[in-house]
Amino acid sequence: MAKDNNPNQNKFKISPWLIYTAILLVFLVISFTTGGSNLSEPIQLSPPNFNNLLQKGEIEKVIIYNKSETEVFLTDAALKNPANKKVAEDMFKRPNKGPHYVVKIGDIQNFEKTLQLAYAQKKIKNYSFQEKNNWSDILISLLPIIIIIGVWIFIMRKMSGGAGGGGGQIFNIGKSKAKLFDEKTDIKTTFKDVAGLEGAKEEIQEIVEFLKNPEKYTNLGGKIPKGALLVGPPGTGKTLLAKAVAGEAQVPFFSLSGSDFVEMFVGVGASRVRDLFKQAKEKSPAIIFIDEIDAVGRARGKSNMSGGNDERENTLNQLLTEMDGFGTNSNVIVLAATNRADVLDKALMRAGRFDRQIFVDLPDIRERAEIFAVHLAPIKKVEGLDLDFLAKQTPGFSGADIANVCNEAALIAARYNKTAVDKQDFLDAVDRIIGGLEKKNKIITPEEKRAIAIHEAGHATVSWMLEHAAPLIKVTIVPRGQSLGAAWYLPEERQIVRTDQMLDEMCATMGGRAAEKVTFDRISTGALSDLEKVTRQARAMVTIYGLNDKIGNVTYYDSTGQSEYNFSKPYSDETAKVIDKEISDLIEGQYQRAINILEENKDKLNQLADILIEKEVIFKDDLETIFGKRTFDKNLEEVVS
């Protein structure tokens, strides 16, 4: 079949927008030429005032429409009269050619006799009777509605055109919102700028090789992976890792969020997906990075109660189609990041779309030291600052948290007019981030201060006496954030947790309330956060981890996320009663255990509370002075100095 290659075949194609504009102009012309050209509406005139103007000879002509409505045109001399100032000019201060007034007719015969007499006396030049077609008035009154409907039809046609391909670009609403980072000028991040994440970097390094030298793999019959999913907690560096991949591979990098696909208009998300992949194919080899993909990639059909998810599901369907429709050697790889991989649609996770899942975990102690080194590079710090010490003080911190610690330490040092950031500034920054801002001006009565000191001393005492409880670093009764006191511990970084370890942690958590009971023989509301924590731990032991003898080796945890939309319990009412009883028994057992420990060390508890009231802050050395060293701490001396 012959192919028409005439470059001028679409040269004179008329845009629908021009057609709608022309229709609008036609309506405007009709409105101006059918009596609607007056930009000032005629004023209603009463019959006595009409007769007054008629007797003065100020009326030039009168037109009677359908023997019911009269239009009155004044003479030029009358228009110069200040009394007719309102009708002499239009809204643009131009001479008003009329009609200037309108008169409602009561008796047409008497009105006609009046006009005949005035005409005979030459007080009026002309009068006439005409039949008026009201279609023009109706058309003019409906003109705004017609314009709105026309514009709406135009938008809908453009949007439906976007659903079919290539359309949907009105006001660029269907265009992709992806930000393009050019490999020659914008992308400067490489793997050297990504501290830690050794496992993730090693796994993702192969993607860089795919983009740099695809023939190495395709020549052997292999297929380039379509995509890789970065999964991990917030702030662990998923976005930074994706940018580093683009920087290492030296390819264009399209970056956007999953929420950028979602719009109120039908078909916009799908249109943006098509436009994004079209741009990426044109610039291949390239990388598409979709951050927070769970905004658009949630499993379909789970929340059927609302009908507002159709657009999101259409967008997801288009994303699935585009990823599956890639050519084998298109050299475009999709990277996506989420911290909610459990809610993603299974079709999105299958091989052929996201072939690989790369887990980006929280950094360990060695990786935290490397991250500190990166973020401390631009900060003026004292000589010999121990990065390993800082890493040990920040267990469970993500890369974003460490960046925040470094920045907060610099702000604290500047607040005290220091020339360099020292170790204490970093410790204060960690306290500020974990516990909140100190509120030294908060008014606390001596009785309340004593209760707070006993509570915090109870935590410190019980945790010091238990083998598997986290070692204490610092205790304070200075209010921070929403808490009236706080204790800092250095938890052991465990990969698995055993029953005795969880029980020791629960017992230490209940130490505050137990101390109040032992000392005052009454309890207060100050243990709310402690109760919340131990209840969550006890419920997890019973219903999730299978660490309870009565319930047995059963878990009611649903990793697929289906339980979020399931309103029925996965167990019977009898089992629910057993679960409630076991949770209560676990908590009460550890509470009684904490009371027994504090009864045996009541004098030391009060001594520690007295030091807290005096100093407001105590450290590990103070506990060693009172209780002696913890014999079961292996590396405590190395961890806390």
From TrEMBL:
ATP binds at residues 232-239. It is found in: Cell membrane; Membrane. Residues 224-364 form the AAA+ ATPase domain. Keywords: ATP-binding, Cell membrane, Coiled coil, Hydrolase, Membrane, Metal-binding, Metalloprotease, Nucleotide-binding, Protease, Transmembrane, Transmembrane helix, Zinc. Zn(2+) binds at residues 455, 459, 530. Binds 1 zinc ion per subunit. Its cofactor is Zn(2+). The chain crosses the membrane at residues 12-32, 138-155. InterPro entries: AAA+_ATPase, AAA_lid_3, ATP-dep_Zn_Metalloprotease, ATPase_AAA_core, ATPase_AAA_CS, FtsH, P-loop_NTPase, Peptidase_M41. It is a multi-pass membrane protein. Residues 588-615 form a coiled coil. In the central section; belongs to the AAA ATPase family. This is ATP-dependent zinc metalloprotease FtsH. The lineage of its organism: Bacteria, Pseudomonadati, Bacteroidota, Flavobacteriia, Flavobacteriales.
